[in-house]
Design goal:
Elements: H1 12-33, H2 40-61
Helix pairs in contact: 1-2
Length: about 60
């Protein structure tokens, strides 16, 4: 899969996916260090939010 980036304009899908993945990683790191305590009940909605954000970005950037 090859994404062409126009000069000066990042691909919104990749930008959203990267930001969401970074935030998800920080939350997992905070859980691992004991700063916050997560359970499956709180992780499942976050995982669905990650998928939803990426799907939303995909729908907004699709050009037909």
């Amino acid at each position: 899969m090859h994404h062409v980036v126009k000069r000066g304009r990042p691909d919104p899908l990749l930008l959203v996916a990267g930001c969401v993945l970074a935030v998800f990683g920080v939350v997992l790191l905070l859980d691992r260090t004991g700063t916050i305590e997560l359970s499956f009940g709180s992780m499942a909605p976050m995982a669905f939010a990650v998928v939803g954000a990426v799907l939303l970005a995909t729908g907004l950037t699709r050009r037909e």
